[in-house]
Amino acid sequence: MSITPHDERFMAAAIRLSRWHIGRTATNPSVGCLIVREGIIVGRAVTALGGRPHAETQALAEAGALARGATAYVTLEPCSHHGRTPPCAEALIAYGVARVVISVTDPDPRVSGRGIAMLREAGIEVDAGVLEAEGRRSLAAYLTRQTKNRPYVTLKLAVSADGMIGRQGEGQVSITGPLARAQVQALRAETDAILVGIGTAIADDPLLTVRTSGLEAQSPIRIVLDPALALPLTSKLVETAREVPVIVVASEETSLLEAEGLPPSALPGYRGRATGLDPSFEPPTRGEIGKRGDPNSPVSDGDGFALRQDVGQGANPDPISPPVGEMPGRAEGGASPADMDSRRAALEAAGVEVVHCNPYHPEVLLPALATRGISSLLVEGGAKTARLFLEAGLVDRIQLYQAPVVIGERGIESPLDATDIPSGFAHTGTRMFGEDRLDEYERGL
Q: Which one of 51, 155, 419, 441 is separated from 94 by 20 to 30 angstroms, measured CA to CA?
């Protein structure tokens, strides 16, 4: 059967439905499913909070006997493997649906193509690739972690009329208005983790949480690139670390670690937010990340980090120089091994996770975050940190807010503006929030 406007209309509705739980389904993707019989929706569902039950089984249960002979519209290929729940493909077969329309084929090797084959073998008609571009956009975080072994990275910048993102020595400076700031809160709520450099963490003393009423529990994990463990114990991040997780990424400088008698450690256990981490996901403990990798694999660095050659389009394979001004303490001749040990102990006593994974090698850090179940990362703070990810070719989406305010003297120049977006990005839309303009740019998945 050829694809019709009727199919596209229902798939568009399924994609909109799938967005309801983005960022709230742990390591599973947020999938939308509609069961349609004679042009009427008789069942609908989105992947449940925490990742289970899946969308298909919930929609089928709602449709009941009306599912027999109906068409199922699913944004991602139904799973075909036995995990903590039976395969969704089996459920579709058992309920007797006549046709399944799919937007995106699942790249997970346990599923890819197998779900479709299972359905066809049961005599069910299958059409795939309906509104695929839109479907892939809604599944961007999941697809990136599956295919590139790293989180989907969004860079958010708010730029003044004179091209600045802040003013030196003044901490946080409001550039956009309340409508744009509310939109940023919504973005945080659907993102697994948010990252800033230590310079921004000290200068702005941000909370980096979701402050929209009703969405506070959706605050992302907060990550600070902090090579010398300079994050103040009196900072808002440290003071709230027991409420919303904070990860500090410290230097793994060999001489420093050897002096302390410590091996390079890996990211600690992912601490799920209020919706819960997928209970089937078993992250390695501190120092075990190397055991996950194959030292003989061409995409391993020999220590087990999942270093892929394709982590970023246009990624720089050479080590990335630490951004000037983002390395207090030891980089300026300060912190001794004993100082570092004391700082780490104090931060950990306050509930902060301290990890060693070179802060200025995002091609190493991002795969490490992916092993912790982090599928999406928002880079929100610091011109130097923004340049770090841009130069590494590891930004997938740019959200560029442009406001009419003027910063003037001592302004901190934005690492980019609408006239110098890196090659490989396509402009995907413009929206206005009061007087503030948001332009979005994306790389192809």
A: 51
